[in-house]
Design brief:
54% of the residues lie in helices and 10% in strands. The protein is of the alpha/beta class and 569 residues long. The chain has a domain of 87 residues: Arginyl tRNA synthetase N-terminal domain (Gyrase A, domain 2, 2-Layer Sandwich). The strands form four sheets. It has a four-stranded parallel sheet with strand order 5-4-9-10, with helices on both faces. The protein has a three-stranded antiparallel sheet with strand order 1-3-2. The radius of gyration is 29 Å and the shape is flat.
Length: 569
């Protein structure tokens, strides 16, 4: 039963019966129904203030009148309290309907086909060629991955785009450095680390040798002009970088459908200039070509610098146009740090001024910065934490904890991988995405806190209970799920589809992460207070069914945020 819909129907009928009026539709009534903060105040509440104007009566009087005429088998009682109608559902019926509905869908509970035929583009991770993947890329990668899975779960066709940072004068320097001092086999084996060494050497020696800077510019000009050697070396640099990055992506369970980066749009920028010129938007400012945005409280949007070079803003415009032409997207989400807020406001405003109404389908999904154990990360100051190193260290620490807590556990390495990597991902996605994150080991790997290991352990506990129980052929007696602890679990299960809808509306994976913790905490209270393997076989069957639903839902919710759920820990 959809309890909101059923209650809305009862309230609408009661209003008609008591006042001979129908001032609100059932859909409107459903939108006003609330969940009281304390279960002692009921399972649902309807504020009669919404009816006061049309009925010309005080909310308490309306609530009293309605409470006297509402009656249904699934409603245990109705109370009128200070203008609110508080509904107390029949606990056994409520548990039966929620648990059987969730059990029927299993790990697909909460999914839908609402997005069928609609594409959602997600621009995330966006690593730089010839640079190592560091912890600063963790949030964009994992928020993007979680949203990819969440949209897919709701029937959309997500398209993951890794908009590579693969254009600019630095690549001319890289090619020059390689030509001067590089060795193919050394770079092939050493990967990005060897490329970084070459770039650092070039940068240091260029301080004393002006000819090197000129050589770097010359190689970039060759790259721009399509020189075969420059392009071959550059393509190889990308291949080596992506090979390194793939190791990390595989560890995280992250995938992409496109690696079209900045260089992909170099031959697609003429359209940008043509459209801007045609619409009279392109003006000259101090030698540069810009779109003036002062009327909208923003600085000019530079599309061509004084020296004639384009910048990433130009390529972002070209990318937006290409993406709509190619994918006809329902949404295009840019998962990029909040420091780029202004850039995306400008980008979307320029698209609007160009006459593209679909600019409304573009959204900047911003997030905060990552620090490590109290220290801000800085490449220039040498304080960098590489993501692969962080993940390996987390797995190693998880392995030592498992060795201490569960020395007889099978597949310790596999469980350590799931727990260690899950701890990093969960920690990153636990708070609202716009908040800054300070990563600490003792918090991330705490088996008793609001962490991945705690939730994963709860999943393993459910698996253990179900293994121990074996087959139970009795008919479930849902009176076994009327205790407050059981009802808390049932209430969370019922709210999951609605919560997932809100999480997608806000593009906020942390809502799912926190749900995982809330469900795990509620189940553990149920586990300790209610005997699951009860001697009454009807109660046992109902409690085992609830345990199965919790197991599946924890696994599903963890999957949606990119975390695995071990069956034994």
């Amino acid at each position: 039963m959809d309890f909101k819909t059923a209650l809305s129907h009862q309230i609408a009928s009661a209003i008609e019966k008591a006042f001979s009026l129908t001032p609100l539709t059932e859909a409107e009534i459903a939108s006003f129904l609330e969940t009281p903060p304390d279960p002692a105040m009921g399972d649902f509440a309807f504020p009669c203030f919404k009816l006061a104007k049309s009925l010309r009566k005080g909310p308490p009087m309306i609530a009293d009148a309605l409470a006297g005429v509402i009656e249904a088998d699934f409603i245990a009682r109705v109370e009128s309290v200070k203008g609110y109608l508080n509904f107390f559902l029949d606990k056994a019926i409520y548990a039966r309907d929620v648990v059987t509905a969730a059990a029927e869908k299993g790990e697909r509970y909460g999914s839908s086909d609402e997005g069928a035929g609609k594409k959602v583009l997600l621009d995330y991770s966006s690593i730089n060629i010839a640079k190592r993947f560091h912890i600063g890329h963790l949030s964009t990668t994992m928020i993007g991955n979680a949203l990819y899975r969440m949209y897919q779960f709701r029937g959309y066709e997500p398209v993951g785009i890794n908009h590579l940072g693969d254009w600019g004068t630095q690549f001319g320097k890289m090619i020059a450095a390689y030509k001067l001092w590089g060795n193919h086999d050394t770079v092939e084996q050493g990967g990005v680390d060897e490329m970084v060494k070459l770039y650092v050497r070039f940068d240091q020696e260029a301080h004393d040798d002006e000819n090197l800077a000129e050589l770097g510019r010359a190689w970039f000009k060759k790259l721009e002009d399509g020189d075969p050697e420059a392009q071959e070396i550059f393509a190889w640099f990308k291949e080596v970088t992506l090979k390194d990055a793939k190791r990390v992506y595989d560890m995280l369970g992250v995938k992409f459908d496109s690696y079209a980066g900045e260089s992909f749009y170099i031959d697609k920028m003429d359209r940008v200039f043509d459209e801007l010129t045609e619409k009279g938007l392109l003006v000259e400012s101090e030698g540069a070509q810009v779109v003036e945005l002062s009327d909208y409280g923003m600085p000019p949007f530079i599309v061509r610098k004084r020296d004639g070079a384009t910048i990433y803003a130009t390529r972002d415009l070209a990318a937006a146009l290409y993406r709509m032409d190619t994918y006809h997207f329902e949404k295009c989400l840019y998962v990029v740090a909040y420091q780029q807020d202004l850039h995306f406001k400008q980008l979307f405003k320029v698209l609007e001024l160009m006459g593209h109404e679909w600019y409304k389908k573009c959204e900047h999904v911003s997030f905060g910065m990552v620090s490590y154990e109290g220290e801000t990360l800085s490449t220039r100051k040498g304080h960098v934490v590489y993501l692969e190193d962080l993940l390996n260290k987390s797995v190693e620490k998880a392995r030592s904890i498992i060795e201490e807590k569960s020395p007889d556990l099978e597949n310790k390495d596999e469980v350590a991988r799931k727990v260690g990597i899950g701890a990093v991902v969960f920690y990153d996605l636990y708070n609202s995405r716009v908040k800054d994150i300070d990563f600490w080991w003792d918090r991330a790997l705490n088996f008793d806190g609001e962490t991945a290991p705690y939730v994963q352990y709860t999943h393993a506990r459910c698996c253990s209970v179900l293994r121990k129980a074996g087959e139970c052929s009795a008919q479930p007696d849902y009176a076994g799920l009327t205790e407050p602890e059981a009802q808390d679990v049932v209430r969370l299960i019922e709210k999951f589809p609605e919560l997932l809808t809100e999480a997608l509306d806000r593009n906020e994976p942390s809502m799912v992460t926190r749900f995982c913790v809330n469900l795990a905490q509620a189940f553990n209270r149920f586990y300790y207070e209610c005997r699951i393997l009860d001697e009454d076989m009807g109660k046992r069957a109902a409690r085992l069914q609830l345990t199965t639903v919790v197991r599946d839902l924890i696994k599903t919710a963890l999957y949606l945020i990119g975390v695995e759920a071990p069956e034994r820990m």
